[in-house]
């Protein structure tokens, strides 16, 4: 399986606002990735979700 690569990307126009709960430890890791790559927290979350969905086992 290919590894996730965080990339600079343009904002999507078709967004939905939704509240989720994640652990503090996970939040810190994602926030660190966002800062390191100069991206928004939401951009990193969306890339992680897209990667996960693209790599689901059938």
Q: Can you give a write-up of this model?
A:
This protein has about 60 residues and is an all-alpha fold. The chain has a domain at about 25-55. The protein is about 45% helix and about 0% strand. The chain has two helices and no strands. It has helices spanning about 25-35, 40-55. The relative contact order is 0.20.
Which tags fit this structure?
58 residues, 0% strand, 47% helix, mainly alpha, 2 helices
Q: What summary fits the major beta sheet?
A: none
Strand percentage, roughly?
A: under 5%
Mean pLDDT: 90
Helix content: 40-55%
Q: Tally of extended strands?
A: 0
**What is the radius of gyration computed over CA atoms, rounded to a whole number of angstroms?**
12 Å
What oligomeric state best describes the polypeptide chains here? single chain
Characterize the overall form: globular
> CA-to-CA gap between the ends?
14 Å
Low-pLDDT windows of residues = none
What is the N-to-C succession of helices and strands?
Answer: HH
Category by helix and strand content: mainly alpha
Number of helices: 2
């Amino acid at each position: 399986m290919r590894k996730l690569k965080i990339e600079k990307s343009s904002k999507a126009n078709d967004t939905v606002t939704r509240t989720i709960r994640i652990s503090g430890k996970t939040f810190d890791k994602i926030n660190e990735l966002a800062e390191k790559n100069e991206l928004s927290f939401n951009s990193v979350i969306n890339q992680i979700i897209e990667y996960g969905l693209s790599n689901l086992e059938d």
